[in-house]
Amino acid sequence: MSDMTIGRTLRLLPAQIRLSQQVYWRDIAFAIMGAVMPLVLGLAPAALASESLVYEGVSQRAWLLSSGISAAMLFVVYNVINSAARRREQRIYKRLRCTPAPAHSILLGEAISAAIPAIGQVAIIMVAGHYWLGVAWPVHWPLVIATVVIGLISLAMLAFGVSGLLPSGEIATWIVTPVLAGLMYLSGAFGAIPDNPVLRSIHRYVPSAELTDAMRIGYLGRDVHGFTVGAPVDLAAAAHAAYLPLLLLLVWAAVGLMLFNSFFRWEPRAR
Amino acid sequence: MPITQLRRPASDPRTPHSPAGANPRPPQVIQVHDLVVSYGSTRAVDGIGFEVRAGEVFALLGTNGAGKTTTLDVLEGFRRPAEGSVSVLGADPYREHDRISPRIGVMLQDAGFFEDLSVRATIRAWRRFHRRARSVDDSLELVGLTHRARARVRQLSGGERRRLDLALALLGHPELLFLDEPTTGIDPEGRRHTLRIIRDLVAGGMTVVLTTHYLDEAQELADRLAIMHRGRIQVSGTVDQVLAQHCGSRVRCAIPAEVAEAPEVRAVLHARGAEVQRHAGELRVSFDTSDPQADLLPLLTTAARAGAQARDLTVERRTLEDVFLALAESQEQ
């Protein structure tokens, strides 16, 4: 990518984000569906948990709330793939590509725009968790914020990249739903992964598992890996514990970019 | 303004077929050599070549599935050629799309809008992608959508959507404009309005590549054209060249039988494969010719010598539609 293209990508990025946001909130049915499910998933497990139950010094509600936040963030995959498949089907992306906006400006703009409502949902879950369920605020705010931003952008870019492989908008929903369910299961957000060698080896590299670990480390201030809860750690130690999951999330973002560059199409696959 | 007045006069200095040496030829904006595009085992475009010079209107015509839109897709940078080379504004449109995209306007044949946005909001949003964009009000006025500015896109008719399409294509003052079926679905008044816009833009120096099913439109607007069929260019050139090469004119007249018997007249009728019908003591003759004057001369002089008259004489210039249909028919055979 030339300097000129990079410059124009950055210059036109706000225009794409603004347009994507404008359109997102106009389709109110899609927006509500996209907002309600993650909120329910983020809050319900913690709300149903016992207030007094503590495991390894961590309250069950705090544990489930931090897990719920990462699970809620996974819905960005669902929203991005569905909307990308729909817009490609309607040839809206092709029309956008007829503007001077470079391809990566459209990709990043759509990814960031998809992350914005998700950031709002994370904030709502945290506030409701604190005031309604009595869960303490995150221990390491900077790490939580970094996890939210990196996690959402990575998932959105990965989803955007994968959307180019899907044959049509109709089929996209049928494919993405089980994939999302699989991501949630392997994240370990709501239950331990069975002690199976295959699952254990996959789990280590699944983006949802990395996201859940990084979120738990930042939120709880503990050195957490899967269901192993370590001692309380300061911000530097927490960042050290979370750097690998965050790095792997960035690798997933790069995979999304590579898929986008290789397979993304601006118009429907079938002619 | 009637469509028949839309064509630039031959003396226009930008007209590509102006006398050699009178003006330097404008630079080539598009060069296509041996272009091949395949979908699986099907060759949608099969080794075509043409060039488009600055300031001219180039029309790509053809039956459905002839390969016109696929060719435009390649020129617009959406598709990579399987073989051959393409240059648009001096760049490879596929690999260097971002370099040339600010200089290009594209009116797609069938692309969606964000249906819940208003017309004004759509233009405003698209303006943000251009460094030097037309104002929203100018754009609305240009395409005659001022009265529909507040309407949501989903409420627009097919013709109004095409106008919005054109407004978006023209937002950035492009040097090169691709128009894929620009007047399809537009009522006659709207069509005339759209053609007037295109004519004005070309008069301002814009280069236009268009595809259309309305052959009269191409005949009136295009400086040069190419007719495609099954992925190949069957005919190309200026409108005059194409008409002259294929069919030219249709001559009809009624002559006394003795005039038709004269050897020089018989020779012309035979050479042209004339259709002859006897009717009330005279012969009704019709034939195609690329040189009506040369063919009519023996017929008229013979009639004059015999003191007879060639009645109901008409010389009807063939249209592009005739050429188009003849080509399509000959290919089918």
UniProtKB/TrEMBL annotation, chain A:
InterPro entries: ABC2_TM, Nod_factor_ABC_transporter. Residues 21-218 form the ABC-2 type transporter transmembrane domain. PANTHER family: ABC-TYPE MULTIDRUG TRANSPORT SYSTEM, PERMEASE COMPONENT (PTHR43229:SF3), NODULATION PROTEIN J (PTHR43229). It comes from the Bacteria. Keywords: Membrane, Transmembrane, Transmembrane helix. It is a multi-pass membrane protein. GO terms for cellular component: membrane. The chain crosses the membrane at residues 28-50, 62-85, 106-133, 139-160, 172-193, 242-264. This is ABC transporter permease. GO terms for molecular function: ABC-type transporter activity. It is found in: Membrane.
TrEMBL record, chain B:
One of its GO terms (biological process) is response to antibiotic. It is found in: Cell membrane. Keywords: Antibiotic resistance, ATP-binding, Nucleotide-binding, Transport. Its main location: membrane. It holds the Pfam family ABC_tran. GO terms for molecular function: ATP binding; ATP hydrolysis activity. Signal peptide: none annotated. GO terms for cellular component: plasma membrane. Residues 30-255 form the ABC transporter domain. Residues 1-27 are annotated as: Disordered. It is a peripheral membrane protein. PROSITE patterns: ABC_TRANSPORTER_1 (PS00211), ABC_TRANSPORTER_2 (PS50893). The keyword Transferase does not apply. Gene3D superfamilies: P-loop containing nucleotide triphosphate hydrolases. This is ABC transporter ATP-binding protein. It comes from Flexivirga caeni.
